[in-house]
Write a structure and sequence with these properties.
The protein is α/β, with parallel strands linked by helices and about 325 residues long. The chain is built from ten helices and 15 strands. Helix 3 packs across helix 4. The structure holds guanosine-5'-triphosphate, magnesium ion and zinc ion (ZN).
Length: about 325
């Protein structure tokens, strides 16, 4: 069974009907009866299925890319963190790094799940940040219930659809807001902490609100989590942040992941940021990472000296390993 990330209806796709999206954004039935070969594959890549959940209002009807369900259970990754912690910049840097082939050393290849949507994401977030060097805006409060981007990740044997949700930090504190509907479908948690923040003791309501909504067994969650302490460029002269931030990535080395996790834990602990460590206490599998989405702070909305992300893919790789997207690697996670 697959959970629809938009309405949480449980989907059984044994008898899917296919749809194609028209240029004006509507959906019409797609018949592949006589189509074979590469043409068929091409149409299937762009095909959609309609979520079978009963809706009271036809306006609430929604479609999912066929690729989202055809490879088995998709992985929904939710970025979790308070307002302005750096979620949106981190995701844009991650997708940018993936576009530049950053997953290749791990034996992973990617494709856009929905080619048009992905192009829209790259045009609106990745390109402005990495090429035009402009700071991205705060995420708006529009009650979007859809992932901002989604990829097909292949590890040489299996393909997994991976969808990313990034909503405004303020909304994450709410357990009732429409925009937080995807929370129960999350299969990988990406907690984001602002490493430059001085008010570390405060903890984060969004962490608790999201952790509370996920199922637990024996008091703990089986959903793997990665904690990314971002904006580490602002604390780059502090040991051991400097060592990690400028370390060359060397594949997925569980010992290095463990050592970095310990250092991040100690870093947060020293700052009295115990409340930030709740994902580590609550999740059975959790890794911690020092990252910088931009390499420097923006001035007047621009990154004048360019954007140089550091270690943005490490938390993602770790989530991939913990969730089984990336198989054949030794156990990762504390
Ligand atoms: N120095 C530094 N600043 C960063 C970094 N990433 C983001 N910022 C800044 O942090 C601020 C907030 O970043 P966002 O990515 O919009 O934060 P958010 O968590 O998505 O915020 P909401 O959408 O409001 O929830 C912006 O002013 C960014 O310029 C980083 O790696 N280093
Ligand atoms: Mg945002
Ligand atoms: Zn649905």
């Amino acid at each position: 069974m697959i959970l629809c990330p938009i309405c949480l209806h449980e989907l059984d796709w044994s008898d899917e009907e296919l749809y194609e999206r028209t240029p004006d954004g509507r959906y019409q039935p797609l018949s592949l009866g006589h189509v074979t070969g590469p043409r068929r594959e091409d149409l299937l890549r762009a095909a959609h299925v309609r979520c079978p959940a009963p809706v009271s209002d036809p306006g609430l009807e929604h479609h999912l890319p066929y690729d989202y369900i055809r490879h088995g259970r998709p992985l929904v990754i939710g970025l979790v963190g308070g307002p302005e912690t750096g979620k949106t910049h981190l995701l844009a840097s991650m997708i940018g790094a993936i576009e530049q082939g950053g997953l290749r050393p791990y034996g992973l290849t990617t494709d856009a799940l929905d080619i048009e949507r992905h192009a829209e994401y790259v045009d609106s977030y990745v390109h402005p940040l990495l090429v035009e060097r402009v700071a991205l805006s705060r995420t708006t409060h529009r009650a979007t219930t859809e992932p901002v981007d989604a990829l097909l990740v292949n590890d040489g044997r299996h393909t997994t659809a991976v969808a990313f949700f990034d909503i405004a930090g303020e909304l994450l504190r709410s357990a009732t807001h429409e925009a937080t509907r995807f929370v129960p479908a999350i299969g990988g948690l990406l907690f984001v902490i602002d490493g430059s923040s001085r008010s570390a003791r405060m903890g984060d309501e969004s962490f608790r609100a999201v952790l509370d909504r996920l199922p637990k067994s024996g008091g703990r969650l089986d959903v793997p989590a990665a904690i990314a302490v971002t904006k580490c460029d602002a604390v780059r002269f502090q040991a051991p942040v400097d060592t990690w931030l400028y370390a060359e990535p060397d594949g997925l080395d569980p010992e290095a992941v463990l050592a970095e996790s310990r250092d991040v834990y100690a870093f947060l602990h020293r700052r009295g940021a115990h409340a930030w460590l709740s994902p580590y206490d609550k999740c059975r599998k959790c890794t911690l990472h020092f990252v910088s989405a931009t390499g420097a702070a923006a001035a007047d909305g621009r990154f004048r000296r360019g954007v140089r992300p550091r270690r943005v893919l490490e938390p993602l790789i770790s989530l991939f390993a913990m969730t089984g997207v990336l198989r054949g690697h030794p156990e990762v996670g504390l």
